[in-house]
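User: Batch of two.

Assistant: Item 1 of 2:
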Amino acid sequence: MASGTLPTLKRLLHKRRQAAVAAYRQNLQSDALLKALRRICDQVVRKLLLLYPLPEGASLAALGGYGRGELYPHSDLDLLVLLPDAPDQEARQRIEQLLAAMWDIGLAPSHHVAQTHQCLEQVKHDSSLQTSLLESRYLHGSRPLLKQLQKQLKQQLNPRSFFLAKRAEQQARHAHYQDTPYALEPNCKESPGALRDLQMLLWLAKAAGLGNSWRDIAHSGELTFAEQRAIVRVDQAFKRLRIELHLLSGRAEDRVLFDLQPALADIYGFKASHNRRPSEILMQRYYWAARVVSQLNMILMQSIEERLFPCHEAPRILSPHFQSRQALLELRPEQDFARSPELIFAAFLTLQQNPSLHGMSAHTLRSLWHARRLVDEGFRLDRQNRLQFIQIFQQQRGIVRALRLMNLMNILPRYLPVFRRIVGQMQHDLFHAYTVDEHTLKVVRNLRRFTMPEHSHEFSLAHQVINHYPRHWLLYIAAIFHDIAKGRGGNHSDLGAQDAQQFCFDHELEAEDAELVVFLVREHLSMSMYAQKHDLSDPKVIFDFVRIVGTERRLNALYLLTIADICATNPTIWNSWKAKLLEDLYQLSLSVLQHQHTDSLSVLEQRRLDASSEIRLLGLLDEAREKFWQLLDEDYFLRHEAHDIAWHTQQLYFQANASEPIVKIRAAGHSDAIQVLVYTPDTQGLFLRICRYFDAQGLSIQDARIYTTRHGWALDSFIVLLPNYEHMLALDPHLIEHELSKNLRKGHNTLGAQSRQYRSAHSRRAQVFPVPSSVELTPLADNENTWELSLTTTDKPGLLYSLAQVFERHKISLQSAKVLTLGDRVEDVFRLLSPSLHRQTAQQQFLKDILHAIAPATPHL
């Protein structure tokens, strides 16, 4: 009988759920849908219990969100089976049959089976379970048994201990999500600034005796009615988003995934603007809502803490306007931001200037949040406010904390209207991992870290440079403006420089300082581009960059800002090879600025001298060195740096005509990059075979220098990055040396037994928001058969190997390659040698084949 009834219940459940969703589509009332789904499940569960009864004397209760009376379309049913006694075999069997029947009809139970004393014991060590049980709601069975548990849980509840446990739980959860609401794919339930933070406030308020709803908390005095309206508005927004995610994905999906963002934007009715996708508008709205939740979570958490842990000590007077109580900054009783708006910035300055302060009191935070509306045109024009704002950057400590708090409280965006445009702005460029405002503040944070001795080991040269740099606070202002024009259309560097110039004029910066800030904003991408896309062994490249920089002061500042910018872009984008390239460009440019080298000839001569000195230190005689160097022409010395020349000479001088291919490797940078030297008779398809090996091993080529000696031998050098998971190759260089040389032997075409056939997967973002591919082929003036191929595309496994196949098919020789990888975006530059590309038909076919090779890979379903 029961088995025959289950399909009927399943159809009933499905039909009623569909009707509830249809009603929601008509009115978009989130709470109505959540309550309707809860009622439907209650009814079906009770019908099911007629067929599969509970053990004698047991009680069934709803927990968690289901217990609160809310059920999302694909959420689990969080259930408690409360037993009066230890279960026997029959009781266990009944429970198992009930749960199996729930699964059969389309419910997804998440259950907890226990007796009262077990629940009371478990909650002592599990605050999450304690919270779920405190929200328990009777469904069926023994009502007195559940009431007894609920009564004992309330009696056992210690509000102070509960607060401390839940705060620690929130801190751990925030850390799991990188302590930011501005993730690329935020979790609308668990991320900072999302639904869980709102639920946390309700749990703590209930434990503190403030009530069970936002209305109750407002009546208690812990929320103003303006705050209540704001929190109800964002609560409804997050509920709707979570509902839409469940309905769109057809599962209990709480992450705002890349591949769901376009469809979500369409559901919400967002339209593309001239420079932003609908999905970017959607995500900006999400981040704005998350910021409101973060603001109110911080204020109310602080307020509840002060209520539960009152301080009876007299405050310590800090100034005529501020005092300290429990190491928290407070406005003095007679002070008010509304009467004295200049105290807004003074509050942040006072926080910075008093190391004993841990933060601001709830009253001060709340007052600041409401005072944000005072930051208007008159406030911005006030000279005292402008001077105080500059002083915030000039303090010895607390700069990042002050700026983050100003941004969170919506004071920074109101003071700098141009900054307001980038708050919560996400760009799907495949390498930025944060919103523009979050990235900007991370750049400031990185610059601050350069000044701190405890972080000097991370960026030793940057630490040395910034601690000898006068008025380095100017770098923080440049960081604020470097991306401030993102999303407006046009060149954001030029537009941002205009904004920075106006800011410096308004805030009375010295002309020399203003010029530096404007330069840094306008050229903040230049050093990165020169270091990663140009050949630093070419003296002309260095002289061109030095003409842009102009002075040593500018060079130092641009070097610091560039590193801070790259490291704040994406946690995976920085590596030791990028660090080395930037340091090399910095040192080479510094030499030119200090007049150590004045032209290309002097650079070349110095390079030979430096290489000779290094070779002598290795114990090699000049005669042996010169004998090997006779095999190399001037082009070799122009395209290789002194330490590379010395290394090549040391490895090859005694085996210039070796009978077997020679492969040598050494570290490049620190632990994640290696340099590979390949020396073998030059043959057709050599570069292709090398790329094939590297691709099979998951070794990403970052730089390639292809050279043929006067006697026809290939002397090729590669910089490759090791896979993140792979440490064996770094520890055992002989593995690469053996495998690659084996693969290069005449007639040997296999990849070897050690091949890992590594393939990295396309990210979801790259599949949903691919980079439009572009290819440009330009003849170079120094040689009529030399060409520069520049391409931009979405990264994919085996990309360079695919390009090498095209070069081989068209009989084109590669002289050098610069591979710039920015997350899922690649920007590569190749120097090619080919007499056939002058023919229009050959050039068109070549470009067609290149475009085909870089076409996005078809994702595996």
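Item 2 of 2:
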Amino acid sequence: MRRLWPYIAIILDSFHAALSSRILWVAFIAIWILLGALAPIGYREDFTTTFRDRDIDNGGRLKAMLAAGIADPSKANTPVGKIANGLPEDVKRELRQVGQGEDVRFYFTTLADSLNSLFEDESWYDAELWKSTARLRELRELDELGPDEIDETLRKRRARLRIEAAIPGVFESRSARSIMLTYLGIDFPARFAVDKTQFLILLNQIVVPTIINWLLGFILVFLGILVTASIIPDMLQPGSLHLLLSKPVSRWLLLLSKFVGGCAFVFLCVIQLIIGLYLIAGLRLDVWNARLLLCIPVSVFVFAVFYSVSTLAGLRFRSPILAIGITCMFGAYLVVVGMIGGFFDGFVTRPSTINQMTIAGDEVFATTRGEGLLRWDAKTEQWDEIYESEALGRNRVLAPVAIDDSTIVTAVVRGGRFNPFGLGGFDLLVLDESNQWRAQPSLRLPTATLQLVSADNGVFAINSSGIAVTSKQQIRETVGDSSHNPKTDDDSVAAAASASGMSSAAPQNSWLQKLASMMGAATEGFQDILPSDVLLTPPRSVGISASGDTMVLFSGRQLSRLQPTTDSTTTQLASSAAWQVVATHTIDAPLPRFAFLSLSRDSVLLASNDDSLQIFDRDTLTPTASVPLPDRLSVVSSIAIGDDSRFAVLTSDQRCRVLTRDPDSEKWILADPLPQSNIEAIATDKRSSTLMIAHDIDQVDLLDADTLTLHRTLRPQLSTWRQIDRFLIGPLRSITPQTSELGGTIAAIVSGESSLEMNRDEFGPVELVRYKILEPVLSCTLFIAVLLTTSCVYFSRRDF
């Protein structure tokens, strides 16, 4: 122990030197001011009342329904007509223009503000008319309250629910209570449209890590280098160094002691900031997150990366100025490498990443994150681009589905990458082997179609508010027919109007057709199949059996099973009336952020952001099992595989696990991951009993769905830019300390999650930003070890 005292004294001396630094006290004061400014922040929960632009999920349908309520005389005495006629005059004037067929664009904020204006005067409400609407239990309970039992907030909440009931299928599902931030007890002007659980996710995964990354990962590191850059050069002064070496100390331990002592500056600042944020989050926001304290050693570790450069530069040049300059150049190098890596991630890797797959006979097709459509060319062993992947493209390509062994169907939505409605109507595209896989237009798809599903009895088109079906024969008959007119005739207009809730007694003119189309009604050749009281509201997911005679919907928190009203032939089924609900189940859990439904022979799997997989009986929808996920993992997508009750589940660690039921115990078991890693997407083809696994950007493995044995691999050659990324940029990023990636480590520590949901594709796999937790820690540790070893060897052998 006595041998350690000299080194401990050196470290303590560094603490004393840090405390005597004026820059340290300036940093202290800045931290105290920041914490003092954050301390008055608080929150309160209040009922979700006013509409915001982000509450509108289907703006086209909302505009069309309001326009129909004004333009169609028969709708005047309906709930939607009452609401439409109660809007401000300027909005009604523009809605009349919509009803007359003019293309009038509304900002979502305009629509939201006009609906909020109805809260002040509820003369538009008629209790008798609203009895025909699908009202939530919350609304029924509020309607039963007397005038003396309801305050102003509850009255506005009730008004919002009445509007949502009258205009179904257009609003995002929101929690009944929202978070309201306060400052010094005064409400912020903006209300968060999130509940307490979502608020905690936002705080722990975005807000707190961002504060720590900027304050600790940038500002304090820079200040720390300014303060500590002189420690090593000062130690090398003849009088100082001779005095230190006169004691029984080792040179390399002396240097390491100075290095540890140099970290004192950042440690003293970090410990105040982190503990201050921890107390503010706990006392003011009720978030007692002890994991936040783990950011103290991580933040000092980040500084140690830069200080190791400063130490070596100080030894070599004995100049604080040069040490600061070299360290700043090193930081600039890290920024440049990070920018180059981000460029390749965003413009080379991500656009080429496969996210959907399908099989037609022996042909394999895939769509990419860059909205490209690929076909595997077995002769050249390369992906043939039918539609090119683009990093900044505006169009959206629907995941293709096969209608036979030589034909697939898809669609290109112009301007649909960030807007499901696109820039107008779009056709179902047929790609056939006999036509060298060139796209041929077929039927006009319903507006805002998001997913196509192929079944034995037809092709289903799922949009943001409904589901329509057509026969495969009808698709083939319209291919290449130049005389095919996507506009409907009078009979189909009346059918579309009826399916959309519009009166068929209204004048049969173009505006009726246009409004019906805007509402997402079935176009010519398609038939709406959802009952009028069944709506698709976020989060939504649809599962359809391979035969096409069973459909399970998840909408909001409602699970429903539907079947056709008649047992008929394929052609008759495609044109039959709406299906009927035969079973329902309400999920007793908070509203999930996303959901995936998968149907097997006798079970239904519901996978969401919950920490477990929920399994239901396919016929009755009664819960049968709940299987927990491995710690810190979330679901990316899920599918049913094989002929028995098995499911493949893709998790956020980019591994695929099979969920199966033990035939002896009847228990559901989540097996160990399959051998593939870095998995981007999974899919299945029931006709060929094939499980498709896309991994490592654009490689695909085809497995037998029953035995899970590999029978085919697709390994394309790398493009020029991919080769540069793999053989130059990849190694460069590997040997560079990944300090920027330590932000993901901090986010993972604070939130307890392994990934962050970013872009969720409707009816598709969730795109997650996966935190790199160990990689940056190992790369930075190796870098610090190499530079400190070099510094110790140089200091030990050099005669100063």
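The chain is about 40% helix and 25% strand.
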